[in-house]
Structures are given as structure tokens and as C-alpha cells.
Design goal:
Order of helices and strands: HH
Largest sheet: none
Number of strands: 0
Number of helices: 2
Structural class: mainly alpha
Length: 52
């Protein structure tokens, strides 16, 4: 039963990703390369989240 619930929730997650229902912009804003003082680098040289 527990495995069936996990599979169902996993499938719902994949379906939501495919439908574009997740907004990762806040995660992207708050993660990434850091400067020596701990602040986020904002120079755009780390790829900018663009897929190849």
C-alpha cells in the first residue's frame, strides 16, 4: 500500500512538472555560486539557468 501511494505521488509530481505547474524561480534566486563573503554571485557567468 505504501509503495502504491509513493508511486501515485511521484506520478503527480512528474505530471505537474510536465504541465509547468512548478515555479523554480525562488529556488534559483536563492541558490547558486557564492562570493567569498557568502553572498550570491550575480555576474551571470554561472550559466544563468539556461539549458544547453
Amino acid at each position: 500500500m505504501e509503495d502504491a501511494v509513493k508511486r501515485h505521488l511521484r506520478q503527480e509530481g512528474f505530471d505537474a512538472l510536465e504541465a509547468g505547474e512548478f515555479d523554480f524561480s525562488e529556488i534559483v534566486e536563492n541558490t547558486g555560486p557564492r562570493n567569498a563573503d557568502g553572498s550570491l554571485k550575480r555576474d551571470g557567468t554561472h550559466g544563468g539557468g539556461q539549458a544547453a
